[in-house]
Amino acid sequence: MANPVFNNSAVFGEKANRDVQRTQQQQMDPRLATEAHGAYSQTMDAASMEQMYNAPAATSADTDRMTYDDIIMKTGGLLALLIAVAAATWVLNPSLYIVGVIGGLVLGLVNAFKKEPSPALIVAYTVFQGMFLGGISYIFQNQTVSGQPLDGLVFQAVLATMSVFVGALFLFKSGKVRVTPKFNRILLVGIVGIALFSLVNLVLVATGLLDGWGMRSGGLGIVIGLVAIGLAAMSLISDFDMAATGVRNGIPKKYAWSAAFGLMVTLIWLYVEILRLLAILRGSD
Known about the structure:
This is Bax inhibitor-1/YccA family protein. The chain crosses the membrane at residues 71-90, 96-113, 120-141, 153-174, 186-210, 222-243, 255-272. The protein is mainly alpha-helical. It has one domain. Helix content is 75%, strand content 1%. It has twelve helices and two strands; from the N terminus they run ααααααααββαααα. A hairpin with a 2-residue loop joins strand 1 (144-145) and strand 2. It is globular and about 60 Å long.
């Protein structure tokens, strides 16, 4: 469970799952069930039973519990907003990506460490990230190699991101890859390692000791890019598992915003890594 959105939530993850399982076991205790049934039978008359039998099945709106549909709808809405803002930034003013970087970083940290989801802050985060992605995509697309722009780079990155997402979802749903404590430990160590490497590389480039993309260019850049994409795919699988745990545990519907935000964070990271790797493969420094 490497995604901080889920790490800092009391309703996702292994502890929450254990608590629900303990409650379910208590409810399934034969002695408790017998006692409850006796008390229930004494207070429930025939008319009430008939009324309950004829009543429609409870929906997520009635129970206020999160469903997969809630997560899908909110994630889809945030993705649509992200794409719309990115397209507008590309056309109107790509330099706004700087504003997007700062705003996205601040709101990303705020949302990640909030115990309760804030739809307004999550939407604002999406807007800033749309500005960032629109601007950075424009810059990558218009880099030149031998005097020629990298035409089609962004489309290829979007297509590759969608492919990785679908592949990760298939592996999770099929059970071919299971999220275990060992899986999460490997993911956490990998993400920390990539983060530290990127920080050192950024300092070296900023101080002028390295130029261009620093250590993230050439053969080493390709290897690091592939590792980062692999970790992002693993993170997606972990995100799917946390969302499934939340639905299984019947957590409140509002936490669908947290699940959607967590998926957005991973998808944005995945897209940027793929964009960078494709640029390196096409000869950009």
